[in-house]
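Hi there. Long-time user, first ticket. I'm pasting a complex I've been working with (about 616 residues overall). I'd like to know whether the download I got is complete or cut off, because the file seemed smaller than I expected. Thanks.
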Amino acid sequence: MSKLVIVGTVAFDAIETPFGKTDKILGGAGTFIGLAASQFKVDSAVVSVVGGDFPKDYLDLMSNKNIGISGIEIVEDGKTFFWSGKYHNDMNSRDTLVTELNVLADFEPKVPENYKDAEVVMLGNLHPLTQMSVLNQMHNKPKLVVLDTMNFWMDCALDDLHNTIKHVDVITINDEEVRQLTGEYSLVVAARKIHEMGPKYVVIKKGEHGALLFHDDNVFYAPALPLEEVFDPTGAGDTFAGGFTGYLAKTSDFSFENMKNAVIYGSTLASFCVEKFGTERMLDLNADEVNKRLQQFKQLTQFEIELT
Amino acid sequence: MSKLVIVGTVAFDAIETPFGKTDKILGGAGTFIGLAASQFKVDSAVVSVVGGDFPKDYLDLMSNKNIGISGIEIVEDGKTFFWSGKYHNDMNSRDTLVTELNVLADFEPKVPENYKDAEVVMLGNLHPLTQMSVLNQMHNKPKLVVLDTMNFWMDCALDDLHNTIKHVDVITINDEEVRQLTGEYSLVVAARKIHEMGPKYVVIKKGEHGALLFHDDNVFYAPALPLEEVFDPTGAGDTFAGGFTGYLAKTSDFSFENMKNAVIYGSTLASFCVEKFGTERMLDLNADEVNKRLQQFKQLTQFEIELT
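Hi, the file is complete. Here it is re-exported in full:
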């Protein structure tokens, strides 16, 4: 079991989907990553910032889920980061309605002293300089650094992003973003270009089409579980990343073979995340349900061909 | 080993991709299906029609590949069906430049007498009435009927399509088409609706995202092999269908478990088809290459998780 540092937003989300809408509810990449990783009972610390308006109940909720909250700074006279979005009917695209950075605008992550020796670091989607500042605070080079990012940083902080991903072992990125970052349409060629930028492992998230893991000439393709209905996709990518990293932190085995399993765990947890609004499903998820769904993943993908 | 009847076009194609363009070359759904099925050395008959302009060399080529050509009618004073298309840069969409039905306009399929007892029938993409007329000629109800279709017939012959698919065991269809046919966005719900229309098995082709097999509450998801480059997608769907059906005809095992293997074989053969123009790669494919790629498919998809 490895210690895990997670940097990412802890936020309010307001979400509208064809199935309904919410008021301000608990959200943020750090929250979703932490919740997913908590399934593996790893010793984790979320590094983040919230305002004085952030309910103590939410912090207790995270703490009760075994997520370390000592790295969450509370700016008493500030307001918590707020995002609001509305999904289109196909659930594959959304409009951002509101982005209020608030306390996130001046966020300087502070890794708690007793987590500066963590073996695994998960850099949730944030400005690449913020991600880098977390790495700089670690006492030793972590055994595994996973980074999530998005097109926004490619548009407005590309050089910083390039500098940060040099120090990263695994990047998780969606198919459109990897095409933007590399200028290559073929995901095989794109992954090879990312290898040259630093990350030895590339995880390409394709939403309902699953996820690909690349390492040198090795490829693994985990399909997504076909779902009758996607209720709310918010946080699915972060939940995937949290499941992936949490499983690796728990097993402390960072081989390609074990990363296959990590991808399956990430996909499994993401398949729960989308069943309800925001964090609701992840807050109410037990190990039996996870195991049952893993079994479904096996049935979904495993076959027995005798070569002729 | 079951006898296999294939109905489908035998045609001239002229193809333009970002990588180059061809003159009129051998094409047609029946050709691609037959070539894929021939990998399994099944006793097959292609039922089709060509004009007097169709080279004897092409018929010899098919015959040498062990594809039965006795059901291919030659209309000496007619011209062979001709299709021409141009692919866009992403290879996922194309424009049809020319469609000359020619002898296909009056095509009345005639199943050779010694194939009217075939156990397996593959109905390639044609007017649903033409597909039905093949079924009507069979002496007994075949053990397995597979049907491929496309949006064109949903637009202009929907009632006939509904009547024909009532008699079908397996439908192969792409994701856009299954959404059009059922009016459902969720593929899980769409597959259930197709079950109600007749086919107990539904194969949804998703191109670079792989293929799904549905049967009641069972789902199997075969990803597509991530390719460095797709040279020419023409015939990939037919090759998939031919590989799927050919494998089932060879094994005469029509269970869901064995259909999983059939989907993997279909995907494997389709991954070769797109490597060169038209039928070129399929005409020059040996069993060692197929086995090697099946091994790649195993590495791509198989994992070993111990449930916790």
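A couple of notes from our side: Chain B touches chain A at residues 89-90, 185-189, 206, 209-210, 212, 218-223, 226-229, 257, 260-261, 264-265, 287, 291, 294-295, 298-305, 307-308 (CB under 8 Å). The mean pLDDT of chain B is 95.
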